[in-house]
Amino acid sequence: MDDLLNDFLVETSEHIEAAGEQLVLFERDPTDREAIIRIFRLFHTIKGTCGFLGLSRLEHLTHVTESLISKLRDGAPATAETVSLTLAAVDRVKNIVAGLAETGKEPEGDEDDLTFALQAHACTSASPQAPEEAAPPPAAAKPGKVQLDKAQSAPRENPAPAVHAPAQARPETIRVSVGALERIMLLVSELVLTRNQLLELTRHQDDAVIKTPLQRLSSLTTDLQDAVMRARMQSVGRLFASLPRLVRELAVDLKKKLHLVTEGADTELDRQLIELIRDPLTHLLRNCADHGIETPQERIALGKSEEGTIRVTATHEAGYITIDVSDDGRGLDLQKIREKAIVKGLVSANEAKELSDEDVGRFIFAPDFSTARAVTSISGRGVGMDIVRDNIESIGGSISLTTVPGKGTRFTLKIPLTLAITPALIVEACGHRFALPQHSVVEAVGLDEAGAHKLEDLQGSLVLRLREEILPVVALGSILEIDPGSRAASGDLVIVMRVNNRAFGVLVDAVTDVQEIVVKPLGSSLSELEVFSGHTILGDGSVVLILDPTGIAGRMGFERANDYTAGRVVENFTPTDETTRFVLFRAGSGAPKALPLSLIVRIESIPAADIRMSDGLMVVQHQSHLMPLVPLYSTAETRLQATNPVLVLGIGGESMGLLIEQIVDVVEARLTIEIASTSPGVIGTAEIRGEIAEVLDATYFMQIGRPNAYSRGVANQFRVLLVDDKPFFRDMLAPLIIAAGYRVNTAASAAEALAMFEKGAHFDAVVTDTDMPQMSGYELARRLTREPRHRDLPIVALAAHAAPTVLQAARESGMCGAVGKFDRAALVKMLGDILEVRQLNKHDLEKTVIGSAAA
Amino acid sequence: MTQRSTQRPSSAANAVGEQAQTQCFIVFVGGEAFGLPVDSVQTIFGIEAVTPVPLGPREIIGLVNLRGKIVTAVSLRRRLNLPEPPATRSTLAVGMDHRGENFALVVDEVGDVIHLDSEMQILLPPHLGERRAKFTKAAYRLETGILSLLDVGAIFDFPRHT
């Protein structure tokens, strides 16, 4: 149901209830002027809202009732008839409201009986010198009259239809002031802090007497926090409510025909965030209307419908909501953006050629980047997409876009559900501790004088050579001016962050902890410090400042810089080398475990509630992908904690998590395996900083968590096109292929598949149904292999059964094999055979590299 | 206590004093006494651990956890531009609220609560330093000397440079 209507129903039920009560009071004490004025106001409010919402039946009824009450207010005597008539009106309003709540519409029928009576009475009341006499004659024949004439103590019986429609048909709600909710939230935040302090105190105790109730308290606190958070949620429908009007105005201003579609209005979001994304959303809509959608004439010429559609949809994912704003307009002019980017010096002409369309599209988020020819009043006023992106990123969200020339553009906003509580790394620099929100942290890189990661001095500025990239790095101590000496920047760990699509590193001494922190804004005395976004109290009771990655980037001057790191940081699997930094942690009984820090992409804390079991494997939804979790301790013996530290490993572009109990420390030590291990998953026992620790074999767990990705090692993911006209098979087979470690696109027909190739899509293999309407899979294969560039493209036929005849037909049409639709194992094996062979064919690879370089 | 002399003590009568009587809490910094309006004082406490705020104003010593609340500690000494004390640094603070933000005013010592009559008020001497004048709300003539009543709002107001 419409939010507005819902609010109206809640309010009106309250008002009408109050009016009834006041009326009874007034009857008892007719000298109570206050009471009648209150009743008048209540009816007046209802009437006003009804008119606004177009509820004509209610409006008429309340209007007539209001006139009668106004007579009473003006001094007419409150006779029993007057009061019972008014009460009858109150009941009738209730009935109609109940009907509204049920169906969303005013129920059929009219109030002629009642309104006549009310009007007649209003007339007689107006002339007090001729009172009581004029009973309502027009109502005489109506059934309602019986009760109207009698001032019974039970005047609420009303013969109108739907008399007993109970108010409970609507979910029960009470209205709570925002202030009260905020106060509860504040108290819960304090409770979380106190809980953390308690946990910290008992961390090193093994007293079950305390531990058990504390665990309970801990999980209850988390639940409470969750519940309060939920109570603060509001549906994004509130946000959407203002959009139709905006689109209407845009259509008039731009002389375009626009149609707005909103979906997922009931998706819920923290109320604080709803307000924060209002402006960015409005801006995106303006952008779609102004730049995206063509004029009606252009659209007709293009064979599109005259009316352009703007679609705003909200969906909920674990911990995030996604808001898509898309149009069916002309799409981004990527060529023009490329040219502009070169002119602006954001990218060299050569680099521009190499960039994917997606990367090119991203330029529109660069400051002062507008390709609009004319500055219009709608957009292109300097309030650019960069501001939109900054606004979204400042609340820990992200924005991305996809565009198809001639078809339209889609912006995707990913917004966290709440701002109040966020996971953060606790970092140490020059003896100070700071909290660094995890949402912008990409990875932590341990420095090593001799090894792979080493800071270099580039004319006084620090840079880090990380894999193929050069990252600018600043020491946290020097940017915050807390570095005590003139000594060159110190630190052992570079935290790589990504802000506004730029990666940079911050040099710190250590990461001491990962905690969920309750973010509290800085007071006004400190709010102008751009490098801090707030402060919080840690488990040990100490206060730390929360670093603002955007502010740090700004202070470093990265805002003005060119995109120093084109493309993105590729999560690569770096095999174990002589790394000397270890994460020490506890998982299960026995000695603490150790893993080289270089293997760990990041550390997360994952609530137990987010962990699911799937096919015997623990998984967690992570950045819209499922990430497998391998517990390093027996989850049968030890229960999951409310939030669980997880070490995230990156393998071949995919990630998996190791579920542990507690991070002990990050230490630097020389690794000398004292006792080699025979048990799987353990390399051996070593002495690290005087403590005995088990050094784990990360590869072993990768084989469990991501067997296919692991077997591919550092290779790129292969892209497979699945063609089948039946959604059932697409839905069944696509996940299967994805699970085998490939990226999958689907096409519903051979024509669609061909169109994808035509647009330049690259696939490493095609799996196609043989039996499809219009064009069979055999024909698709023939057409594809006819073209020289697809000659070597492996195509696999999908048939009901892999009968010899099918295989023969497949071979004849240029396919390399056929499998049965229900033989999943054979499909995966065949893809593996085909693609692994290709990968090993180095010569081929070289050719591709040379080919793309020449292009 | 104070070396300053009053210029026109007789003009006290026409000084602006909305209330006939003000209750005032005395604090000491660098041997000087200052008054704080009693109703703005919430608590007196000893500061244990301070988290410094890098890049913050010099007068802000740092952030303090006061029973689960984060409090901004401001040094009255630095605010009034008084010389830094010898080795030992004071940890005594007066908890106060200003515009919804919790502050702790760090002082050397705290004294008594006294009553101030509007008749005791004197005009601020015109040659009072600009910085001092900004933070002083009024001055009162006491038997022991002259007492400055501090303007809490001004003390906790840190200008935005943007």
List key phrases describing it.
heterodimer; A: 855 residues; alpha+beta; Helix Hairpins; Heat Shock Protein 90; 6-stranded mixed β-sheet; 27 helices; globular; disordered C terminus; B: 162 residues; mainly beta; OB fold (Dihydrolipoamide Acetyltransferase, E2P); 9% helix; disordered N terminus
Describe the structure.
The complex is a heterodimer of chains A (855) and B (162). Chain A is built from 27 helices and 35 strands. Chain A has 855 residues and is of the alpha+beta class. In chain A, the strands form seven sheets. Chain A has a six-stranded mixed beta sheet with strand order 10-14-15-13-12-11. In chain A, strands 27-19-20-30-29-28 form a six-stranded mixed beta sheet, with no helix packed on it. Chain A has a six-stranded mixed beta sheet with strand order 21-25-26-24-23-22. In chain A, a hairpin with a 2-residue loop joins strand 23 (617-622) and strand 24 (625-631). The model of chain A is unreliable at 127-169, 373-382, 560-579 and 839-855 (pLDDT under 50). By secondary structure, chain B is mainly beta. Chain B has three helices and twelve strands, in the order E-E-E-E-E-E-H-E-E-E-E-H-E-E-H. Chain B has a six-stranded mixed beta sheet. In chain B, strand 11 and strand 12 form a beta hairpin. The model of chain B is unreliable at 1-19 (pLDDT under 50). Classes of the chains: A alpha+beta (855), B mainly beta (162). Chains A and B meet through helix 7, strand 17 and strand 18 of A and strand 5, strand 6 and strand 8 of B.
